[in-house]
Amino acid sequence: MSTRPEIVLVRGDITEQDADVIVNAANSSLLGGGGVDGAIHRKGGPAILAACRELRAGHYGGGLQTGRAVATTAGNLAARWVVHTVGPVHSREEDRSELLASCYRESLRVADELGARTVAFPAVSTGIYGWPMDDGARIAVETVRAARPASVTEVRFVLFDERAYDSFAERLRPV
Ligand code: ADP
């Protein structure tokens, strides 16, 4: 039976989380980058990059599309899997909110299919990709609240700084 997963906020570094799945704010190349992506590859070791290269050599020859998600090993991290998702770059001209929501929905779906119980998310797109933190938090919380996974019981948002934490806390407040 599916239920609403509990939503937990943590201030910290996502690479230090003990969760079944750690979600990576990747880019479409899947071959590494800055921010969360750089930290995950640094700490997780070469096995993650090797798995990403295999994906590129196979079904994901053109890379991973924005809003989609795919799992690999978590290498040396405490997690069992890393789920890579590609957030949209923020735009003032075009509303890309649905793509950002899709990152959370698809990552959760992939994690759920793997049988994960705990999933740790960063604030996707709010770093290098420029998404305003308050709006990123709104989309993250609304999308996870609407999900009814079968195996995931806890969704943990891991926020790097106080501003990010406060934005998420504000969205989680009971109305
Ligand atoms: P994107 O390219 O999707 O914007 P980034 O990795 O640049 O992804 O940033 C996403 C968010 O994650 C930002 O709010 C950034 O401050 C935060 N962040 C960066 N490093 C870490 C980390 N090690 N753990 C958790 N959050 C992080």
List the helices and strands and how they pair.
Blueprint: E1 6-11, E2 21-26, H1 35-44, H2 46-57, E3 69-73, E4 81-86, H3 97-114, E5 118-121, H4 133-146, E6 154-159, H5 162-172
Parallel strand pairs: 1-6, 2-4, 2-5, 5-6
Antiparallel strand pairs: 3-4
The gist of it:
This protein is α/β, with parallel strands linked by helices.
Description:
This protein has 175 residues and is an alpha/beta fold. The chain has one domain (6-172): Leucine Aminopeptidase, subunit E, domain 1 (3-Layer(aba) Sandwich), CATH 3.40.220. It is 37% helix and 19% strand. It is built from five helices and six strands. A six-stranded mixed β-sheet has the order 1-6-5-2-4-3, with helices on both faces. Helix 3 packs across helix 4 (133-146) and helix 4 (133-146) crosses helix 5. The model has no long low-confidence stretch (mean pLDDT 97). Residues 13-15, 25, 34-37, 39, 87, 122-129, 158, 160, 164 line the site of adenosine-5'-diphosphate.
Strand order of the largest sheet: 1-6-5-2-4-3
According to CATH, the fold-level topology is: Leucine Aminopeptidase, subunit E, domain 1
Our count of domains comes out at 1
Care to count the β-strands? 6
| Shape call | globular
Largest sheet: 6 strands, mixed
Note the gap between the termini. Answer: 27 Å
What's the SSE pattern? EEHHEEHEHEH
Helix content: 25-40%
Looking at CATH, the homologous superfamily is: Leucine Aminopeptidase, subunit E, domain 1
Please tell me the CATH architecture by its name: 3-Layer(aba) Sandwich
Name the average pLDDT.
97
Structural class: alpha/beta
Low-confidence stretches: none
The ligands found in this model are: adenosine-5'-diphosphate
Give the CATH level 1 class. Answer: Alpha Beta
Strand content: 15-25%
How many separate helices? 5
